[in-house]
Write a structure and sequence with these properties.
This protein has about 90 residues and is mainly beta. It is about 0% helix and about 60% strand. Strands 2-1-9-8-5 form a 5-stranded mixed beta sheet, with no helix packed on it. Strands 4-3-6-7 form a 4-stranded antiparallel beta sheet, with no helix packed on it. A hairpin with a 2-residue loop joins strand 8 (about 70-75) and strand 9 (about 80-85).
Length: about 90
């Protein structure tokens, strides 16, 4: 894992839809969108249906994955996103 990255896992009931080291994400929280960077403090949030924006190291434009409602947990430089359904794998 690079210095300014963290592990992101996007999990549905059927599979792990995404699992990579990333530089940042922006998630559609139920209280509003929020961003996560490397070494974020422990955090849990509920997610609304919307776009999960993911920047991998060296990217200037984020990958976008449409998600349904779910939950997000940040712990030990790892983010786990649990959702019922991913509408599309990635779009740019």
């Amino acid at each position: 894992m690079a210095e300014n990255t963290f592990k992101l896992e996007l999990i549905t009931p059927n599979k792990i839809a995404y699992s990579k080291d990333v530089a940042s994400i922006i998630a559609p929280g139920s209280e509003g969108s929020f961003g996560i960077l490397a070494n974020h403090s422990p955090f849990m949030a509920s997610l609304d249906k919307g776009e999960l924006k993911i920047k991998e190291p060296g990217q200037t434009k984020p990958q976008i994955i449409d998600i349904n409602e779910g939950f997000l947990e940040v712990l030990n430089n790892k983010v786990v996103v649990l959702v019922d359904k991913v509408k599309n794998e990635t779009k740019e």
